[in-house]
Amino acid sequence: MPKNNKKTNAKIKQTSERIKSLILFDITELILVFSIVVLFYLTLPLSTTKVIFIPKGSTNSIITYLNKSGYELGLIDKVYLRFLGYPQSGWIDIKENYLTKADFLYKITTSKAALKDITLIPGETSYVFLNDISKKMNLSRKNLQKVYDKYAYKNDGNILADTYSLPYGMKEDHLLFYLFSTTNKQYESISNKIFGEYDKKRWYYYITLASVIQKEAANSDEMPTVSSVIHNRLKKGMKLQMDGTLNYGKYSHIKITSQRIKEDNSSYNTYKNRGLPEHPICAVSLDAIKAAIFPAKTDYLYFVKNEKNGLHSFSKSYKEHVNNINKNRIIKRNLKKKAKEKKQEIQKKKSNSKTKESPKKELYVFPKSNSKENTKSIKSLFDNVK
């Protein structure tokens, strides 16, 4: 009996081990099948735009949003997405149009925001810059102006001339808040370094002065000297009488005429008004700000553009200034004369080359025959027919 019991127990043990191994095999088989199905599912192709918008919210709400956008994501995607981490929010640069589901889900958790570089050129007005932003960022020009007018401290000079990397898809208000706050932080930092404080009213006086320098100076090297002329004229109570102050807003690139000077009654017209304009004329560079605060030490009161080199000729007296203007007129006249002579010389060379060319000979495919011989031969043929 004991032997039989041992045999029975051994059989039971063997059977249970077989069952366990079968169950383990089935589980392993199921896992493998499930893994293959998941891998197959995640390698399915998916098409997308290179830049997509992901709203803020839970993973479930993001999956729902993407499904509504036509991405057809399911339970496996949701689990895999949770395994990868949390999706980015905002406008995301996927950089590809065609990829697998696994790659797509990985990209929306790791890709950086889609950015666009927008440059505000020194000397450019906010009016032109808002036009540029509207076109490049696909935003409403009307809404941009509305937000700008509501939150800007001054009509211009509120945004420092620089290149800004802006996330694609930003709304008008968020975009301008970002530009205003970024500039304000820089203004505050520079002011604290120079003056030990940030007095906004005082600071924008220098921004206005810097904007005049920005419009008038031929280059950054000239800026401190141009600044000294403005400072000297302001101290003496003289009108600035500078064309650049009338290149504000939409007139940024319009040539200033005597008629415009007569008709413009704004504070920007420094031919009519003393002192600086009420608002900065344009965006300014750091060089212009430094020049406004630290002008060169000179006695100059006038400057005029030198037609020879494109820079400015500076003078201390009106008499010297008039002499520089007259010199410029002579230079301008001579330059025009030389240009005219050069043009005439080119035309003369062209006409000479035409006369030197020999007349083209007529080319004949067949030898040219004598017309009289032709008439005789025709007549003889006619006689033969008769």
From TrEMBL:
<keyword id="KW-1133">Transmembrane helix</keyword>
<dbReference type="GO" id="GO:0071555">
    <property type="term" value="P:cell wall organization"/>
</dbReference>
<feature type="transmembrane region" description="Helical">
    <location>
        <begin position="21"/>
        <end position="44"/>
    </location>
</feature>
<keyword id="KW-0961">Cell wall biogenesis/degradation</keyword>
<feature type="compositionally biased region" description="Basic and acidic residues">
    <location>
        <begin position="342"/>
        <end position="363"/>
    </location>
</feature>
<dbReference type="GO" id="GO:0008932">
    <property type="term" value="F:lytic endotransglycosylase activity"/>
</dbReference>
<keyword id="KW-0812">Transmembrane</keyword>
<keyword id="KW-0456">Lyase</keyword>
<keyword id="KW-1003">Cell membrane</keyword>
<feature type="region of interest" description="Disordered">
    <location>
        <begin position="336"/>
        <end position="386"/>
    </location>
</feature>
<dbReference type="GO" id="GO:0009252">
    <property type="term" value="P:peptidoglycan biosynthetic process"/>
</dbReference>
<dbReference type="InterPro" id="IPR003770">
    <property type="entry name" value="MLTG-like"/>
</dbReference>
<feature type="site" description="Important for catalytic activity">
    <location>
        <position position="216"/>
    </location>
</feature>
<dbReference type="Pfam" id="PF02618">
    <property type="entry name" value="YceG"/>
</dbReference>
<comment type="function">
    <text>Functions as a peptidoglycan terminase that cleaves nascent peptidoglycan strands endolytically to terminate their elongation.</text>
</comment>
<comment type="similarity">
    <text>Belongs to the transglycosylase MltG family.</text>
</comment>
<dbReference type="GO" id="GO:0005886">
    <property type="term" value="C:plasma membrane"/>
</dbReference>
<protein>
    <recommendedName>
        <fullName>Endolytic murein transglycosylase</fullName>
        <ecNumber>4.2.2.29</ecNumber>
    </recommendedName>
</protein>
<keyword id="KW-0472">Membrane</keyword>
